[in-house]
Structures are given as structure tokens and as C-alpha cells.
Specification:
Blueprint lengths: L1 E4 L12 E3 L2 H8 L5 E3 L2 H33 L2 E6 L13 H10 L19 E8 L5 E10 L2
Parallel strand pairs: 4-6
Antiparallel strand pairs: 1-2, 1-3, 5-6
């Protein structure tokens, strides 16, 4: 039996693919769990329309992410931290701190999209990647300075 996958199924295929499976596997597993549709002409046309809509949405999201990336690259964020002797910082700058700074500047970016491998623990300049889209990553410039 040929079916159209509605979702990714391990060892079978990805969403939207037409695959041939055993009748029992389709009837007893894929169809009841709504993981697949029978591969009729109407369903094939429906999946083509859905794919076009998804591609258009993906394209719009990518353009918006690229515009946001351009705005973020032009931005310099300064973070003031208390320092001790020999300019050693008390504490660190984390992705939560960076997300709060961005929110104060008018950018609503989730802290999990800020790809900071380790917290910033030294004074100076750092470039932090921010994942805005599957294909778009912006480099954010963070400057850590002494708190007066």
C-alpha cells in the first residue's frame, strides 16, 4: 500500500514523502496514529499545496530573520560588571543577561537562541552567535566594561 507520510517516521521517511509499506503496517500503525494518509490523487494534490504553503512561510521567516540579523550585527551591547583587583570580574555575563539587554533595546529574542558556549568572565569584547532561523545566525558584539 502506498501512503503519504504526515510526519517523520524513523526508518521510513520524512514528512510529505510517498512510501510503499505493507497493508497491515499502514492499517494498524500508521493510519490510526495519523502518521500517514492513503496515497490517493486528492491527498497527493493536498500535500503539494501544503508543501507550497510551507515553502512560502519558510521563505518569509528567513527574510525576516535576515533583516533582524542585520539589525543585530549593527548593535553594540555594553555590559557593566563589578571588578576586583587585577580587573577580575565578580560573576559573569550569561545568555540571560544578554537576552535582558536585548529586551531593553527592543529585541524580543529567547535566551535559548543565544548560543553562548560559556559565560563571559573577562572584560573586553566578545562576539556571541544568535540563532534566528535554521539557516540564519547573527554575530552579536558584547562589550564587557568595568562598573563605575
Amino acid at each position: 500500500m502506498e501512503v503519504i507520510l504526515r510526519d517523520h517516521v524513523d526508518n521510513l521517511g520524512k514528512r510529505g514523502e510517498v512510501v510503499k509499506v505493507a497493508d497491515g503496517y499502514a492499517r494498524n500503525y500508521l493510519l490510526p496514529r495519523q502518521l500517514a494518509l492513503p496515497a490517493t490523487d486528492a491527498n497527493k494534490q493536498w500535500i503539494v499545496r501544503e508543501r507550497k504553503i510551507a515553502e512560502a512561510r519558510e521563505s518569509e521567516e528567513r527574510v525576516a530573520a535576515e533583516a533582524l540579523a542585520d539589525r543585530l550585527v549593527a548593535l553594540d551591547l555594553q555590559v557593566a560588571r563589578k571588578v576586583g583587583d587585577n580587573d577580575t570580574m565578580y560573576g559573569s555575563v550569561t545568555n540571560n543577561d544578554i537576552a535582558d539587554l536585548l529586551k531593553a533595546k527592543g529585541f524580543d529574542i529567547d535566551r535559548r537562541k543565544i548560543l553562548l558556549p560559556d559565560a563571559l568572565r573577562t572584560l573586553g569584547e566578545a562576539h556571541v552567535p544568535v540563532k534566528l532561523h535554521r539557516d540564519v545566525t547573527a554575530q552579536l558584539k558584547i562589550i564587557v566594561v568595568k562598573e563605575e
